[in-house]
Amino acid sequence: MTDEIAEPSPGRARLYQAVDDLDTLICRCRQGDALAWEALVRRFEARIYGFALHYMRDREEAKDVAQEIFVKMYQHLGGVRDARTYLPWMLRLARNCCIDRIRSRHARVHELSGAQRLASEPVATEASPEDTMLESARRGLLHRALATLTAHNRQIVLLKDIEQLTLTDIATRLRLPLGTVKSRSNRARAELAKAVRTLEAGAAEGAAP
After folding, report:
1. Tens digit of pLDDT for each residue in 25-55?
2. Measured in whole angstroms, how far is the alpha carbon of residue 150 from the centre of its chain?
3. Which terminus has fewer CB within 10 Å in the chain: N or C?
4. Other CB atoms closer than 10 Å to residue 123's CB: what's the count?
């Protein structure tokens, strides 16, 4: 995980135990400080592993993906502006690595049996295992996020996105002005997006190795 930088000495490690300022760690990592990088990894390794496990559903593969995430994190750390943007950037990078691994895993399976399958079977019209896995993860997050919304916002989301009603139809059903429905819809979608991000970011908290 940290092969590209020097191994820090145990004696100096204690100096970083009290460094809680993420901006300081990021700055020192950019300067090639191996000790700062180790501190950054230790701070987020459990969260990254849990995040990977949430997607991969396999402990060994999650460990492997977590290693890959930290390698890419180190390689691209120069693009992080400050601590405020670090966590969203880290989770986006982790999610992309997990999705790439899922796609790669299914691509390898398809390569092994693709010729025989194409020769003997019609073109499949159903969802691939990869799509099914990703869709299942998305649906699970969405259902949990919906449960956190206020009653009014949850109602708007269900009518618009589940029942596929137009805003005009929703206004008629709820006996509300169209402008009110539009503003509630915007607030509901913003609240839902925030809830999904919060749940996704917190998925790692209870999944420590």
Report:
1. 898 888 888 888 999 999 999 999 988 888 8
2. 24
3. C
4. 6
Give the residue from 125, 142, 160 where a domain finishes: 125
Distance CA 184, CA 206 (A): 33
Coil/strand/helix, residue 1: coil
8 Å CB contact between 8 and 38: yes
Predicted local distance difference test score (pLDDT) of residue 146: 77
What contacts 171, CB < 8 A, 6 or more positions away?
A: 177, 178, 180, 181
Alpha carbons 199 and 209: distance in angstroms, whole number: 19
Query: Pick from 125, 142, 174: which residue ends a domain?
Result: 125
If you write DSSP's letter for every residue of 55-112 in order, what string do you get?
A: HH--HHHHHHHHHHHHHHHHHTGGG---HHHHHHHHHHHHHHHHHHHHHHHHHHHHHH
Report which secondary-structure segment, H or E, holds 203: none
